[in-house]
Amino acid sequence: MQANRVNRWRSLAALVGVVTAVVALQVPGAAVAADQLTVAEAIARQGGTGTVRGHVVGQPTATTTVVRSGFPSDYALALADSAAETDPSEMLYVQITASFRAEFGLRTNPDLLGTRLDVTGPLRSYFAHPGLTSPTAFSPVGDTEPPTEPPTEPPTDPGDYDETYYRSALGLTGDALKDELHEIISTNATLSYSQVWDALKKTDEDPANSANVILFYSGRSQSKNSNGGGVGQWNREHVWAKSHGDFGTATGPGTDIHHLRPTDVQVNSARGNKDFDNGGSPVPGAPGNLTDHDSWEPRDDVKGDVARMIFYMAVRYEGGDGFADLELNDAVSNGSRPYMGRTSVLLDWNAEDPPDAFEQRRNQVVYDDFQGNRNPFIDHPEWADAIWN
Ligand SMILES: [Ca+2]
Ligand SMILES: [Ca+2]
Ligand SMILES: [Ca+2]
């Protein structure tokens, strides 16, 4: 159904394009149809709706960064009036929503670079830059040939993202690095809380048994279908406790699967909303985990995973999107304040337990299949020290 609708749009828009071209030929100097805008006009006329015609000149990955190769995702493209344009201020940033990604996303269709498109939708800021969001139609213009080369394989080595996704962050440290990473990773859409169940069945699948997930704290492999609220079942743990900033389970930090993990119901309950720190007594049902009245120490195999999820949340959520600005501190007993500790212990855990294949694969699945954004600290664990040390 979706594909048919897209194809009908494409056919209709292509027909309109032909008619427009004929009219333009017959009436020298005639402008294109009233609602058809150049990129310069669309930049000048933010607000309202229009059809913008322009050349595909790359993928915006930040307000002033547009990449022309190694496209990191199918989520956005930049249009310009000239195919050779390299100045982002002369570009319109176009959001590519889910139904258009297979045909117009640049990672899947890198050959679209340089071709012309008509895109219809509201002229609204995107990446804090003149843009077009929530498009209603895309169509190729003129004699553009469909791509003949098969799409390039998406990169899978975390280092492969340095020249694309992370290019604007390389070499930065401190707050400048944190700010730039925030821009890069804040392109994600999150699932509904009910959709999180199925997502976790993919992200946390047991590599040795595809019918199971690995429970985060206990390390137990358990049937994907034994989820729920009963004793011995697994449920959805917010590693950044949702009371720290009180974001609940609405779309946003409450459903951001970069920090949601399957856990044993009773172990989840024992962890509660405690901060992370070393020490305590053994946790029943979760070997290697320790807890006391104010903190939780996870088993060694996931200490670094915990740290990197907390680092991600502190960078992703900066208070600009209706949710609290989540931040690290070196305390415990943070309660409902939007903080999570302890910073010093989390930095140690990040160093002691570097990313392994399971964690890297998980980051890739979240990026490819669900949210379109990455946890930078899984790709570059050294960035935690560059920001917080
Ligand atoms: Ca403690
Ligand atoms: Ca680990
Ligand atoms: Ca923050």
From TrEMBL:
Cite the SUPFAM superfamilies for this sequence.
His-Me finger endonucleases
Q: Where are the transmembrane segments?
A: none
Question: What InterPro entries does the entry give?
Answer: Endonuclease-I, His-Me_finger_sf, YhcR_N
- The region annotated as signal peptide is 1-33
Compositional bias (Pro residues) at which positions? 147-157
Under which EC number(s) is this enzyme classified?
A: 3.1.-.-
Keyword Signal (UniProt): yes
**Family matches, as Pfam families:** DUF6359, Endonuclease_1
Q: What class of enzyme is it?
A: hydrolase
Q: Where does the record place the region Disordered?
A: 134-164, 268-299
Q: Which UniProt keywords apply?
A: Hydrolase, Nuclease, Signal
GO molecular function terms listed in the Swiss-Prot or TrEMBL record: hydrolase activity; nuclease activity
Provide the protein name: Extracellular ribonuclease
